Amino acid sequence: MKRRSVFQWFGDIPISQKLYFTVGIMATLIAVELVTLWFAIGTLSSVRAYVAGEGLYSKGQKDAVYQLQKFSQSHNEADYQSFLAFMKVPLGDHKAREAMLKPVLDKEGARQGFLEGRNHADDIDGMIDLMLRFQNEYHIHKAIDAWVAADAQIMHLMPVADQLHREISSPTPRQDVIDSLQSEIKVTNEKLTVVEDNFSYALGEGSRWLENIVLKLLFGVALTVEITGLLLALSVSRGLQKGLKEILRASKAIAQGSFDDKAEVYSRDEIGMLAVSINNMAEELGKAENKFRKLLESAPDAMVIVNRDGIIRLVNAQTEKMFQYKREEIIGRPVEILIPEHFSSQHSGHRESFFDDPKVRTMGISLDLYGKRKDGEEFPVEISLSPLETEEGLWVSSAIRDITDKKRDHESLRDYAHKLEVTNNNLEQFAYVASHDLQEPLRTITNFVTMLEEKHEGNLDIDSVKYMDYIVNAAERMKALIRDLLMFSRIGRNHMAEKIDCNEVVNEVLADMHPLIRETGASITVGFLPVIHASRTEIQQLFLNLLTNAIKYRRPDTAPEIKIGSEASGGQWLFSVSDNGIGIDKEYYDRIFIIFQRLHNQDKYAGTGIGLSTSRKIVELNGGKIWVESQPGLGSTFYFTFPA
Known about the structure:
By secondary structure, the protein is an alpha+beta fold. The protein contains 19 helices and 13 strands. Strand 1 (302-306) and strand 2 form a beta hairpin. The relative contact order is 0.06.
């Protein structure tokens, strides 16, 4: 068997898995960057703790010497006891150093020593780890040598102090001995000052060295994220374009009556399967269509649609929330009401420039852009502009994002977020363009099939007619699949939780489903439903999916009977949706919640296999879980929980 390369394997996997693979790689690299950042912060914090500890060490030693010198003059025992008390700090650090540098680490001894040295308990573990990890690094090793030298002087000072204490405490203290001991103490103190300065200098050099290493590591990981994302995006883009060009070429040949000209299959993913469908005239064919107006209200950003004259024509709920206007207050008015006065004079020129060269643009990454709320408050924004063809001419769609919190972040974190935003915008733009480019070749294929039907009307054999039907059915299924995929991908992008009454939501869903309920004779009973904190749009979608499935998978010649209820359970709400449908075998309980997993063929029960995976994503996004209990032939009950 011929072995495939990694590039061939990547080209053959489904597009959804390509996206999962890409997201997984990017998430892993970002996790590595976060771990690196965490390690860097911890290490630098430990260096800071050592610097603080050195200050305590030096202060304790200096205060101790002062008390000892005072004792030599006052002969007061309290002064000597103060000397011993101050010496506990350097002696504690001495104990910690010896415990850490033993052949076998005495961690408890090191911890106790640092505590006696008055180091903060929260810093001690980091200080121990820093010493073990970097003790052989030049700067840290140099600091350790200074520490050892300081401890040697401390160990020399202690017997001198003891001798001074014994001499002063004797019945006949000798002043010449006391003076000699004072001189020795002074010399030792001067040596300690030099060694302590060396220790501080070495720590400073080590800190700067660590900062340099950390910055290089973070830059390397960030660069890896950028390059990896770009390479993966280019790989997917080129694969799609290559396959689509081949499909378009073959479809044009088919429209001209050349049925022997086959589309070459480059991969085994969805594009490759589409090429196979064209070749056999019996497989699925897709038509991607994304209508902006239907997505407007579910967009995560404030969306403002403006005509060429700068008049606001459409806005969404996010615009009302962001700018604090009601919809009717801004529709029909100039867009400059949303712009601070010192920018509005220049805006008309920018607008004309866009319409002269309409294309997708993202602004705010390198520019300081601001919006203005109804009360006059200005706030920083990022804006993405996209041209929009309408019956009234060319309009511009503006996606506006409030970046106030982003502006307040630390500069380094803000730069990092900026890089990720650029990458995400590029990927989103790529996905938009790829989706847009899919429409034209697929629309061409559909048109050519229609031309074939008209050209050969009455002359096609049964197989040819069947092939034409396959194409139409495949196009409808692919359209539904793309629509559901878009809906699935949007869930959670702008999760705006609010208090919602589930009774109102269910009533709205039932009103939308009224034609289907009347057609199937379904009976739906709604029990007690609570008020919860969640996204209204997502909860509507959740109930719509479950109720639609309950009606779809009904038993033949049996009217659906559906019950909706809830109860408080363990600090959360337990919801249930029960039906009397065909039921589900226990072995499929987990499988039905996986995207694209279907238990029935398309001819028996239409669908894309995304509804229940969408439901699970909504429930888990809100901190709950969903499961099913069922008996084949008797019906099913779907349970899901939400925090109370």
